[in-house]
Write a structure and sequence with these properties.
- There is one protein chain.
- With 195 residues, the protein is mostly helical.
- It has one domain.
- Helix content is 82%, strand content 0%.
- The chain is built from nine helices and no strands.
- Helix 2 runs parallel beside helix 8.
- Keywords: Membrane, Transmembrane, Transmembrane helix.
């Protein structure tokens, strides 16, 4: 149990670096899933959202923004969850906007669209993360308005957020492995031809 406490405290103290680890892991899973249009688009979309947040986090000292930090993190999580739910519409619109080579990469994800269990799990994880971060924001508002020293969500935030990130990584890996092994074979004619 002591090892677990040290592990959690290490990642809580170094949360900035865990964002890099998370992004690299997500990119590796994306590369593993290149042959499966549905999983490829899901992971590619999440890379875009998370990379945008990572760049924003480097350019702006988000924790110094106080309550706005929680608003931004909630918006990032909601953007991820809602974007996954609206994946087909987003992919279709992107296929008309992007250059031809990129549109050919995106088009199969809406033409052969079907929702995956990994996608549902990610929507639930990002949604629960947004709810938790919003609860932390509400706790901060109560603390500022009333002067009560309520810090339950504040102290739990790093641990819960890292746990959700870890669970997301497990889902990314599972989706990538399923895509690599051809579990979503009905998505991809190339894999069918190889078999």
């Amino acid at each position: 149990m002591n090892f677990l406490n040290e592990y959690v405290s290490f990642f809580n103290a170094n949360s900035f670096y865990t964002e890099y680890i998370y992004q690299i892991f997500l990119c590796l899973c994306f590369l593993m899933s290149l042959r499966c249009p549905n999983v490829r688009f899901v992971l590619g979309y999440l890379i875009f959202v998370d990379l945008t947040f990572l760049i924003l986090r480097q350019k702006i000292d988000l924790p110094a923004l106080g309550g706005w930090f929680y608003v931004i993190v909630t918006l990032v999580d909601l953007t991820s969850a809602i974007g996954l739910m609206k994946r087909r519409v987003i992919a279709e619109k992107l296929s008309y906007i992007l250059p031809r080579w990129a549109a050919n990469f995106v088009r199969p994800s809406y033409e052969k669209y079907h929702i995956t269990r990994h996608e549902i799990t990610l929507v639930l994880l990002y949604g629960s993360s947004a709810i938790f971060v919003f609860a932390t924001l509400l706790e901060r508002v109560v603390r500022k308005l009333t002067g009560l020293d309520v810090m339950i969500f504040y102290y739990a935030y790093p641990t819960i957020y890292n746990a959700i990130s870890f669970l997301s990584c497990i889902v990314f890996l599972s989706a990538a492995v399923h895509a690599l092994l051809g579990y979503y074979i009905e998505d991809n004619e190339e894999i069918k031809k190889e078999r």
